[in-house]
Amino acid sequence: MLEVDGNIIDVLSMLAGIGCIFIRPCRCGRWERTKAIADFLNGVAVVPFGFMMLGTTWTPLMNLVLASPISLGIAGGMGLLFMLAEIMTAGQAA
Questions:
Q1: How many other CB atoms are found less than 10 A from the CB of residue 88?
Q2: pTM for the full model?
Q3: Which parts of the chain register pLDDT below 70?
Q4: Where in the chain are the domains?
């Protein structure tokens, strides 16, 4: 059987990040570097978050997530940034 390790999460995270770079230009018709960077980081964080959620019901999947500290660190950092941004902007008019 094919051996799967934590690198698969890193590879999937990078592919998701690269894919997310192209979503906004396809919808809006234009590309902006700063938004592309944010889209890439958001895409990279999606895969580990999804695996962590699924890992709560299937233990081998959580072990796979824990074997990938780079993606886990990026996802945790992005989650922290978004939570801090929400806290800092709470109560401000949009």
A1: 8
A2: 0.71
A3: 1-4, 93-94
A4: 7-88
